[in-house]
Amino acid sequence: MPLLSIRDLRVEYRTSRGTVAAIPEFSLDIEAGESFGLVGESGCGKSTLILAIMGYMGRNGAITRGQILFEGQDLVRAGAEELRRIRGGRIAIVYQEPATALNPSMTIGAQLVEVPLAHGMSSMVEARRQAAHVLADVHLPDPDSVMRRYPHQLSGGQKQRVVIAMALLANPALLLLDEPTTGLDVTVEATVLDLLNELRAKYGTALFYISHNLGVIAQVCERIGVMYAGKLVEDAPAAGLFRTPRHPYTRGLLASLPRSGADKRGAPLLPIPGVVPAAGRAPASCGFLSRCGHAAAGVCDAAVVPLLLAGPGHLVRCARWADLPEMAAPSPVARADAVAATDEIVMEAHDLTRVYPVGRRQLLANDRLTLAARRGHVLAIVGESGSGKSTFAKVLAGLDTATGGSLSVLGKEVAARPARRRAAALVAAVQMVFQNPDGTLNPSHPVGWPLARALHKFGIARDRRAAEARVSALLDMVRLPVSLRHALPRQLSGGQKQRIAIARAFAGNPELLIADEPVSALDVSVQAAVINLLLRIQEEHRTTLVFISHDLGLVRYLADEVVVMYLGQVMEAGPVSALFEPPYHPYTEALLSAAPVPDPQIRTTRIRLEGEIPSPLNVPPGCRFATRCPRKFGRICDDTPPPLREAAAGHLIHCHIPIEELRRVPPVFATTGPAPAG
Amino acid sequence: MSAIANDPAAALENAGRPSPGLLRRLPSSPIALVGLALVLFWVALALLAPLLPLPLPNAQDYLAMGHPGSSAKHWLGVDPLGRDLLARIVWGGRTVLAVAPVAVLAAYVVGAAMGLLAGYYRGWVDVAVSRASDVILSFPVVVLYVILIANIGPSPLNIVVAVVLASAPGISRIVRGLVMVLMHQEFVAAAYLRRETDLFVMLVELLPNCRGPLITDFCLRLGYTTITIGTLGFLGLGLPPPNPDWGGMVKQATSMITVFPHMALYPTIALVSLILGFNLLADGLTELSQAD
């Protein structure tokens, strides 16, 4: 008997426009001790499924059909008392946001002991002993002191460990994980994923892991399900899913990710056309019909497509799966450096420093930053949150000013010059695309307005008709219909808003575009389309792009040069081909090793960083990275700032370790099994 | 196949979806509709006052003074001076409905300006505006009105001045809070990257996004101001006689409230129904904005 068996589940929501089936029909079995991952973009019904399993359907939602059998008992029909025993006892859940999962007014210890006490499993003394024990299991140092602390005294990663500890306290048979690492930095995410694998081996808990990130799922799950429009469209062992994806949607998801080793000149990203249909709006026969490039009339729209067996343990809900060609493995292409190192330097920072006074202390956001970007190149800046990437972007754009050093843009010194005190032509020449699609457009104005306004302010369109024509051209450039100019931002999808933001940035024909995590808030398939668009326009206009990201896969794909930042300083800088091969800076190595790779065939070395990035209020005196460095050299790392070493022409590493030694470090990425055919 | 070209189709589908603003969705809230009906009832009476077959509000009917209760000639009866109560209520509505919106609007101009400046510039501007507001807000409102009107004299303009002084700090606080949140939004940064002026950012980028909470607050404040005008009238600080004034009418009738209760009752009902109308409208708007 499976541990969890969902049978013919149908979940409906009542809305002002009638009843919609968020999950039309869903069946799934999870065995005891198994780790199952469910992927899908937002709007596919993943969260609704979690709510249904936990019995937390809101007042307007209802399970109208089917069963959720857990250890043989139907959760849909269980009474409140029965559910109380099961929830938190036999089934536990870890949510995305650890900060809201913990009560800020109670100590960690008080919250942990509630679990065994509420389930009547032990006495107070016994509960405290158990709590300390499980905190040690999730590798929190000094459990007794953690128990006495309040949530705000812990970092994000530590909080998520506490939440996982809390979930494990009752020794549940099933652990639901709803995007548990989405808000965490990659280095912290990697340690949490390791922890989950370790705990599953130790406790034998079955994992039901929900995520939009295929890379994360690949690291934790043995079996993967792909959900689309409320239905399971593919269900396969992890290796099989990545090696021979059968459903066009699964293939689309994989093709829209930069595969390892691919770059923008070799293999372009292939976005999935269209958007996820609104709940209940998907075609009944095959939910993916309207976005599928392989749909055939009379086959795909005829009858409801059932789950078909495509291989051992490999189920796919596609009527044409057998007709589809095998998905071509990404062919490794020799990286051609199409940009020349002799190109003109358009932006150069030298010892750029930004210090914020915080009370009597100083927050070092940028500390003697030295870097440069050449015309038409893509310069990627990577690093964890708190490394000062966004501060640099703001200073460069003129939204903030530096407190020291120099910053020259197109030959003009702008370090101390906010946008308002820069010449109009210079402001038009340095534009920015922001991270959050929902905040980037003013909700009160139609989307064409900021475009027209920018044209007016930059003196590009002299009269109304010229402005109208130019707005149309800009919308056309970002592949949006001209009629959209009168729509309000809330009528647009996230991807469309980012396109408008790109159009706005290009209104003044910029020479330097700063993109601060422009796609991190978008779904995978939409990300690919926006990245393709951005790169196409950038290449056409020979715009210099400063691309800030924490996604190393994406950076490897699109960057020409990369700068790795940590605590306001540059750790390593160089051409992208050099950054992803030894010699690495130990921090770069750790970042690469932590990045989740959506391909189980690629094995990465396992380098994990202790703890989290220190506060920029209190930076280590020697090497900034010394407190977490797995290759720490000795006392010198703590005391003396590291020298700048040149590994190759243009490839700089800030480290005490000699280049020769760093060169001997094994590469992070290695392929196991047969090499992908070329 | 261009993958990107497929996206606009979905965009158009999105654009066709109805998403009306707060005021246009009003009909879907019964509470708001009841409130609106009450308010519109008084607005209609006030507008039509000169056209209605009523005696002049200050015309005295000495014959009716013997029997001040309702009669065929005076539907609601007459006041102690023999003036038709219905006429005085209808004409009194004109003053309330003219003074209250003007006063609240004026308070909004001043309050929104204060809030915009404080929330936008922070620093010493914020300190100055906020501390000044705190001083005003530390007075009980009625005491503040009495002190003001007693000193500058009762007149419609002075009522407006008093309402502005008493309400602007509260409005300023709301706007300041909203502006401080909006300032972190990226569209504000985008405006700086067009070299927009501070004034433009405040008035065109920030202020329009405050309107949701402000519309609700506006209705509530109309209700409060109506109470204020009534209270001032009752305290003898409203419009100077013989102008019809609901609060003043109640005051005039208090000495004979046990003999002729209708003289105080009808203006009170008028006052209560108008205030109720404004409050229900505000409640309905709150409900609608929370339903988003």
Protein topology:
The complex is a heterodimer of chains A (678) and B (292).
Chain A: E1 4-15, E2 18-30, E3 35-39, H1 46-54, E4 61-70, E5 73-74, H2 80-86, E6 91-94, H3 98-101, H4 108-118, H5 124-137, H6 143-148, H7 156-169, E7 174-178, H8 186-203, E8 206-211, H9 214-220, E9 223-228, E10 231-237, H10 238-243, H11 248-255, E11 308-311, E12 314-316, E13 345-358, E14 361-374, E15 378-382, H12 389-397, E16 404-409, E17 412-413, H13 424-429, E18 430-433, H14 448-457, H15 464-477, H16 494-505, E19 512-516, H17 524-541, E20 544-549, H18 552-558, E21 561-566, E22 569-575, H19 576-579, H20 586-594, E23 602-604, H21 635-639, E24 644-648, E25 651-654, H22 659-663, E26 669-671
Parallel strand pairs in A: 3-8, 3-9, 6-7, 7-8, 15-20, 15-21, 18-19, 19-20
Antiparallel strand pairs in A: 1-2, 1-4, 4-5, 9-10, 10-12, 11-12, 13-14, 13-16, 16-17, 21-22, 22-25, 23-26, 24-25
Chain B: H1 7-16, H2 30-48, H3 85-121, H4 123-137, H5 141-152, H6 156-182, H7 186-192, H8 198-206, H9 211-234, H10 246-253, H11 262-290
Helix pairs in contact in B: 2-3, 2-11, 3-4, 3-6, 3-9, 3-11, 4-6, 5-6, 6-9, 9-10, 9-11, 10-11
